[in-house]
Amino acid sequence: MSTFSIFLILIVIVAFLLIVVIMVQNPKGGGLSSSFGGGGSQQVGGVKQTSDFLDKSTWALATLLLILILLSNVTIINNRTGQDSKLLDENQVPVENTQPNDLPPVDQE
């Protein structure tokens, strides 16, 4: 398995986790934090910590996704250096005049 394949699998997993974390949140104060009830911001182990965890995990997953994408791009660039196409080396046939001879000439004005 190539390095790029490993990065691709990790990118898909992190993207899925990021989607899940974003879907659990609600920008109006609903979502997972509202299902536990209460509106006090002073609660210990309650709603406030849940929303803080979701916010921090969103930023962490988004940062991790960006880093993985950049690293996968570096592995693609490193894998391409020094590799030429085999089709260019084998059976090179010079291209000749490709216009058919049986067509009338085109009048240019």
TrEMBL record:
It is found in: Cell membrane. Residues 88-109 are annotated as: Disordered. It comes from the Bacteria. The chain crosses the membrane at residues 7-25, 59-77. GO terms for cellular component: plasma membrane. NCBIfam families: secG. Involved in protein export. Participates in an early event of protein translocation. Belongs to the SecG family. This is Protein-export membrane protein SecG. It comes from Psychroflexus sediminis.
